[in-house]
Amino acid sequence: MNKQRRIELSIGRRDFVVGAALTGATLPLGSMAGAATSDTSTTQTGSIMETRRLGTLEVSEIGAGAMSISGTYGPPADIAQGIQTLRTAHDNGVTFFDTAEVYGPHTNEELVGEALAPMRDKVKIATKFGFALDGTTARDSRPERIKRVAEESLKRLRTDRIDLFYQHRVDRNVPIEDVAGAVKDLIQEGKVLHFGLSEASAKTIRRAHAVQAVTAVQTEYSVIERSPETNGVLATCEELGIGFVPWGPLGMGYLTGSIDSKTKFDPKTDLRANFERFSAENMAANMPIVTFLRQFAAKKGVTPSAVALAWLRAQKPFIVPIPGTRNIDHLVENLGALRVELTPEDLAEINAVLSTITVHGGRMSPMFTESVDVEA
């Protein structure tokens, strides 16, 4: 498929992309005490990118979410721009890249495959299965479909193995043991190297892990969305030696400080238009969080994004956030997290302030919230 055709497909499938971007992702970077290994690389800015382990999978301490390049938070980016952004991330030490069958659908995997082909053996690629791709948020994790998706994803990604294969959302019609068993078969065949779950409950994680070791769990987590701390998911990952990959580590862009109550989102191209937390009223009510991040970042000489990423990485040594961007300038801002060293006093100050602020609005629309697996 030529480049022009991919661009046309990316734009032509926008309606589905908006409904499909359910998981989040987000793009790169950070360094911090608690990294699970001592391996490092020096970025173009002179900062140090260390590595961490998700289970037994070693990756850069911050990864790159590619989802937004193909749309979701606005129209799709130019293909060449997306490729340049991902390759620049790699040039700056990022070795962990996140995509999914549903992004586009399909076009994001194609973009990631093209962008990373020259350095395939130096990076780890995560992708996802589990949506029916019928224009709704319906799930389909039947074992036969999982195996078919794997074959198709391998072709789009231009690779012979998927480093990390997530179930994108739990399918209530398919026992998780059957899902884990299907991925186990793929691992035995060498087509998949590691198994992951996205937005799964602690109970589901345990059931899956008993059949096939779960390497990573992906769930939204940030200074504005801290549910993994209280719903048992983060604790379960720590107990079982499972890595944790936060999507939306910058609050879907809100924590960057570039969004306020006057910001308008196009419901045809931007998923956030229908999310409660992004109503004008709730964005105004949540502004104390951004104001504090700005003030704290100014003391550190970095951006609010850098502080938000540094805080997240400081929570556990097995956490690897995947902020996502299509913009090189924003990528550079995120790289500022590599220069942030949060002391115990800093963390105490941040947590003390956050504990006094009430977060307003649900993190997703009711339709998307329904697809999140929760304890009965």
UniProtKB/TrEMBL annotation:
Residues 61-353 form the NADP-dependent oxidoreductase domain. Transmembrane segments: none annotated. Keywords: Oxidoreductase. It holds the Pfam family Aldo_ket_red. The keyword Kinase does not apply. This is Aldo/keto reductase. It comes from Rhizobium indicum. The lineage of its organism: Bacteria, Pseudomonadati, Pseudomonadota, Alphaproteobacteria, Hyphomicrobiales.
